[in-house]
Every structure is written in C-alpha cells, then in structure tokens.
Amino acid sequence: MDLQLPAMPSYSKTLTRRRIPRVMIIGAGVIGMTCALQLLERGYRVTVVAKEFASPVLNAQRLTSEIAGALWEWPPAVCGRHADEDSLERAKVWCMDSYAKFVEMAMSAEETGVFVKQSVFYFRDRVEDIPFQLDKMNELSHLPGFQHDDGLIEQTAVNSACGIVDAYQHMAPMIDTAVFMQWLYKQCRKKGCRFVHDDIHGLLRDQAEELKIKYKSQLIVNCSGLSAKELAGDEDVYPSRGVILKVRNDGSLMPKLTHSMCISAINDKPHDSKQIDEDFVYILPRNDDKLWLGGLVQPNQWDRDLTLSYPPIRTMFDKVKEFYPPLRNYGDEDVEEVLVGLRPARKGDICLEWDPVSPSVLHNYGHGGSGVTFSWGCASEVCAMVDHALKRHKLIYVSRL
Ligand SMILES: Cc1cc2nc3c(=O)[nH]c(=O)nc-3n(C[C@H](O)[C@H](O)[C@H](O)COP(=O)(O)OP(=O)(O)OC[C@H]3O[C@@H](n4cnc5c(N)ncnc54)[C@H](O)[C@@H]3O)c2cc1C
C-alpha cells in the first residue's frame, strides 16, 4: 500500500537522475526509516546508514524501535513530558499526523503490522486535556465511570486500589513492530533506497563534508536515537530504560484481552532522578496471541542485561497483576521473554532542528517513549525542512553533483 503524501515538487520530473538530490539518513530505527520512506515518496534519492538494522530473525539483538510497546498515545504520553506549551502543541501535530497515517496503514494490517484497537488510558490525576481532535472524529469517549463513580472499574475488572481517578479511551493504532519495521524496509528498498552498514563516531558537524562526499549526499538527517549524545554532542540525551514481559494471550490463563490499558507515569519526577518508577504499567495485546506487559521508567540506566529476578522487574510484574487481577493466573514460568530497551530520551524536548554549526545536518532525535507515535509526523516535518533547504540552495546542490 502506498502512503498518500501531499503534493510536492517532483524532483524526478524536473531534474535528470544524476541531479536528483540525495539525502543521507543516519539510523534505521522507526525515526530514520519513516523519514527515508517519506523522502523517497517525494522523489529524493536516499541512503540509510546505520550500525544496526531491524532483523527479520527472531531472537536477534533488537533495535529500541522493535522493543517498543508501540501504542499510539496522546501527548504527554504515559511516560512522557514536555518542556512547555509550545513543545506540547508541536507534539500534538506530529501525533495527529501519525494517527492519520497509521489508520490508513491499518487497512492492510497483516502486511503493515498496524492495527487499530480500543485503548484505555488511566490517570492518577484529573485529566483536563483530552485528545480533542479525536473527539471530533467521534472516536473518543471520556470514561464517565471515573468522573463520577467507579462504574468503569466494574466494567473492566481494573483494580480500583491503584489510585486511579480518571481515564479516557479511544481507538488507537497499535503496531506490531517486527512486521512494521520489515514493511518499512521493504517499501524503502522498492523505492530504490540504499542501505549501508557503518558505525559513525564523533561529532557530525566535524565530519559532515566528509560524510556527504562518502555517501554522495547533499544533506544528512541524524536519526541515531541515543547515539545523538555523541553524534550531535548533546549532553541532554539520556537513556530511559524500559522493560516488557511477553506472555501468552490465547485465552488459556484468562479470557483473551483485545484492548490495551495503560496507567500513566507520575509526571513530576525530575529527568535525572535515579528513583525507579514501577507504578507506570501497561498491558498491550499484540496480534500473535501475545500480551506485552510493561513499564519501568529508569533514567540513566544503560545495562540491558536484566532478568525477571531483577527486583524492579519483579515489582513491575506484581503491579501489573494488581492493576488487572485476571493476570494473577500468570506465574514466572509463563513469562516467555524479558525485553529491555533504552528509550532515547532528551531533557526538554525532541530535537528536530538544523545543526547550529553545520547547516547541512538536520537532527531528528530524542523521541523518548513516543518515537512510534511521533514518527510519521516528524518525518513530514523533516521532508518540509529538506525541501525548503534544497530549494533555497538549489544552485549549490546541482553544481556539486
Ligand atoms: C520498553 C519500551 C516501550 C516503548 N513503548 C512505546 C510506545 O508504546 N509508543 C511509542 O510511541 N514509543 C514507545 N517506545 C519508544 C520508542 O521505542 C522510541 O522512541 C523509538 O524506537 C526511537 O526510535 P529511533 O529510531 O530514534 O531509535 P532506535 O530504534 O534506537 O534506532 C537508532 C538507529 O540509529 C542507529 N545508530 C545508532 N548509533 C549509530 C552510529 N554511531 N552510527 C550509525 N548508526 C547508528 C542504530 O543502529 C539504529 O539503526 C518504547 C520504548 C521502549 C524501550
């Protein structure tokens, strides 16, 4: 299925192939690959350079983008935060842009790995800012049970002792990341994308000219996730460790769950807090008869070599069961896999801007716990910025080829 993109100048119609601008993307996670596909759709030539690519092989070392719970969430997401109102507004635009794309992709769900399912978001505070744009689409209902009494708690079998005071539900895209990442890869390949393994070190601004010559590109888009700490020299980038426990959802231990549930993280925790947040939990049904049980928000923790015996994971498992009591039927032996991922977080906000020193490097990193949610929206903005930059410097890029 081809994504419908807004009408843009078609470089392929006006320039010979040799003169079509080439963009180099660093990173093959969801951020890099969605940018690659949108740029290819607009007629650019694209090279994706990464030290690791998503693997079709089960049990291979996974990218963060493959470990993502990959539920679309309205900002601030359940484990997210924003520096100010402007950044929150910008995030909402990306979010809605992605929503539209994901809903379209869900029309070919088996192929793309994108499904749209009922999702319930629970909060320990009253929620003022509900996804109003979804409301307009008649897809949101603010759950009255939490506004007035405990009606919803009875409906969903969620334990009222978890301190929940508010909730909303809507149809949300949920992405089977293994299928989605392979779909992105195939779409890009079909459109002529070049993929290169390379492990880049050092500041991009110091080597931009060298890289552009090596990869015959006019511009570099930095989608390197956590590595932006080094490549962009950005000390605000830090890992936010998360964990997912994979269990079966085939109806054998409890009635099969078809909708997702999340309890929001406590939002006033400082970025550099060492305190472990086990209160943030989510339950996500995937499409292969599996449930992904998650959470943990552990800032500045790099080690991914954890097991079920790690006390915070054990506590998280208990919290999930406490929140949704039918899960008490699951024991340790039912946990098929423990997935540990490092969300590429950034103090303040996502960095989607031109490098202040090197004007041919565009940064797109720091998506924290919402990279899948923001992916298509950020990719659209990257395309617009690339279009604008190349149009402005038309003579330069043509003469360099
Ligand atoms: C447990 C967990 C649950 C999550 N749940 C959700 C969710 O429900 N919804 C949601 O929207 N998001 C969720 N996220 C967040 C989401 O996974 C991330 O925001 C997203 O994957 C970030 O994508 P990325 O492409 O920036 O990074 P990555 O997936 O890490 O990709 C980075 C790419 O850059 C490459 N790279 C890195 N360094 C170099 C280098 N030096 N040279 C060359 N290439 C390099 C890597 O090889 C890789 O290809 C979750 C994350 C975790 C860990």
TrEMBL record:
Gene Ontology, cellular component aspect: cytoplasm
Binding site for FAD: 64-65, 368-373
Domain FAD dependent oxidoreductase: start-end pairs: 22-384
GO biological process, one term: D-amino acid catabolic process
Keyword match Flavoprotein: yes
UniProt-listed InterPro entries: D-amino_acid_oxidase_CS (IPR006181), DAO (IPR023209), FAD-dep_OxRdtase (IPR006076)
UniProt entry tagged with the keyword Membrane: yes
Cofactor(s) it depends on: FAD
PROSITE patterns linked to this entry: DAO
Segments passing through the bilayer: 20-40
Keywords for this protein: FAD, Flavoprotein, Membrane, Oxidoreductase, Transmembrane, Transmembrane helix
Residues reported to bind D-dopa: 282, 343, 369
Top-rank taxon: Eukaryota
GO molecular function, one term: FAD binding
Family per similarity comment: Belongs to the DAMOX/DASOX family.
UniProt protein name: FAD dependent oxidoreductase domain-containing protein
